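Task 17 of the worksheet. Students: predict the tertiary structure of the chain below and write it out as structure tokens. Keep your answer in the requested format; marks are given for formatting as well as content.
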Amino acid sequence: MIRDIFGKALIDYQNDNYSEDIITWTSISEKDMLPLPYLFRDYSEMPQIEKKALQLCKGNVLDVGCGAGSHSLYLQKKGFNVKAIDNSKGAIKVCKQRGITNTEYKALLEEKEAFDTILLLMNGTGIFQKLENITTYLNHLKSLLKPNGQILIDSSDIQYMYGDEDGGMWLDLNNHYYGELDYYLSYKGEEGLPMKWLYLDFDTLKTACQTVGLNCEKVMDGEHFDYLAKLSLNKTKS
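Model answer:
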């Protein structure tokens, strides 16, 4: 049985049993705190990239990797028909407790419905796990789009994390893509299994989209090497 460390933390916060935060780290970074209150933030507390993505939503919306459901909750209150999915049972339980009407415990690749907007936020490309998986995920996302639909996804170019004090880079270009990381988290002394997590620079995302017949445009840059992109179906010429 997979330990749902993330879900356990969300449930604790939702049930007023908040005493400590999640600890996260990666294969190239030290341990850091992920404050649980931040995962329950309202619209006013969201970064500009997330606010912009929510402003661009239209029609039926799929919120992928919904977590505690903050994005879905905002959209639902705005009158959108939203479906929130996550592969954390604890996250889905919390979403239901918070009043999100349509939630489902499932992985993205198991989704079959079609949507006008698909949201993948808080480093949405992370769900791809590895560079070699991008085509599989993009083709599946493409299959879920209604005509004139859109995918709103964010990520970060983490090349800056490989810089040294002298302004040089210690990237090994013969190794795997620099945005492929092992991601770890622990909560209340319990450590989860390592996850593969992908940070993707915009040019690589755009190239991958072109190979599967998706348009890719950058909507905006964030405050720290991050960006929001909009993917859409290529228009067929008559």
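Marker's comment: The mean pLDDT is 93. The helical segments are 5-14, 36-39, 48-56, 70-77, 89-97, 134-143, 202-211.
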